[in-house]
Design a protein that fits this description.
Elements lengths: L1 H5 L7 H4 L23 E5 L15 E6 L3 H18 L2 E4 L8 E9 L6 E5 L4 E4 L5 E5 L2 E6 L5 H5 L6 H13 L20
Parallel strand pairs: 1-3, 1-4, 4-8
Antiparallel strand pairs: 2-4, 5-8, 6-7
Amino acid sequence: TVAEALAPKYSGDTRADMLFDWSSDFFYSGILNYIPNSNNTIYYSFNTNNVSRVVWQGSVALNNVEGFNNQQKVATQEALNYVSDITGIHFQYTDDVNQANLFFGNADIVGSSNIMGQTLPYLTQDYKADKYGNVTYYHPMSVIALNKSNHFAYDLMNPVKGNYGYATILHELGHFLGLQHPNNNPNSSNTEWTIM
C-alpha cells in the first residue's frame, strides 16, 4: 500500500534510527521496492523546467530557478557517487523530466535568509494502486535547490569537497533519502557524527 511504501524501515540502532524522518514526504527507505523495474536506481536531472511545481508546507517557495553550473554538476555527481557507495542505491542521470525522481537547481529560496539549501517534494506524487490499495506504480519526485541569495552563495555556486557548498549538497541528499536533523529528535541533539 502507499502507507507501507512511505513507512520508514528502522535498523534497531538508535544512533542511526534517530535520523530517520518518519514524516518525510520523500522517504526512500522502501520506495525503490515499489518502483517497477527500478533495479535500485533513482534517476536525477539538472533540467529545471518543471521545478516551479514544488512547495513545502506553504512556507518555502523557490523563485528565479536556474540550472546548476558545471562545478555544481561535478560536485553533485561526486556526492551521488559517495552516497551510492554507502547505500547501494544507484543514481542515473536523465534529461527526461518524466523519468527523473530528483531535480537539482539554484533558486532564491523564500522563507528564510539562513537557508543554504532545501529539499522539496513535488506537490503531487504520481502513483497507481489496485482496487485493494496495493501500489502498482509509484513515481516520487523531489527537488534539491541551493539558495543563490544566501550569504554562503560563493561556496554554494562553487562546491568542492570540504566547503559549505559540497556539505550542503550531501546534507540535502540526506533529506531526500529521508534523514532529518538530529536535533529534530527529542532523544538527541548530537550533530558531531553526522552531516545532518
